Automatic annotation (TrEMBL):
Residues 1-29 form the signal peptide. Keywords: Signal. The lineage of its organism: Eukaryota, Viridiplantae, Streptophyta, Embryophyta, Tracheophyta. It comes from Hibiscus sabdariffa. This is Bifunctional inhibitor/plant lipid transfer protein/seed storage helical domain-containing protein. Residues 11-105 form the Bifunctional inhibitor/plant lipid transfer protein/seed storage helical domain.
Length: 114
């Protein structure tokens, strides 16, 4: 049951991100190319339900090359229902990225202690 729930969540994230991808055709090339890889490699680490799980090397390989400001512009309330922004920060930091307090991604603002 948990496995099918996870697959549904992954599919839902893919549909939402793909919709955003098509809707915002002006997104930078790096941002466009990152979205499918980000979903396939990292979705299990940022889903709303469940504990924080250290990301895989495959996820970190994608995260290390992201255009964060570009992607954050397209985080909608619908995406935030599926993706824990706190876990996104956890994954980014686990992958060695510096996450600046005050950074805004969708409606989420990185807190001072992050």
């Amino acid at each position: 049951m948990a496995s099918s729930s996870f697959h549904f969540l992954s599919l839902a994230m893919l549909v939402i991100v793909s919709t955003l991808w098509v809707e915002y055709a002006g997104v930078s090339a790096q941002c466009e190319l990152s979205i499918p890889r980000l979903v396939s490699q990292c979705s299990e680490y940022v889903q709303v339900s469940g504990p924080e799980i250290p990301p895989s090397k495959g996820c970190c390989d994608v995260v290390e090359n992201l255009d964060i400001p570009c992607l954050c512009k397209y985080v909608t309330p619908e995406v935030e229902k599926l993706v824990s922004m706190e876990k996104v920060v956890f994954v980014a930091k686990s992958c060695g990225l510096t996450v600046q307090p005050g950074t805004k991604c969708g409606s989420f603002v990185v807190p001072p202690h992050a």
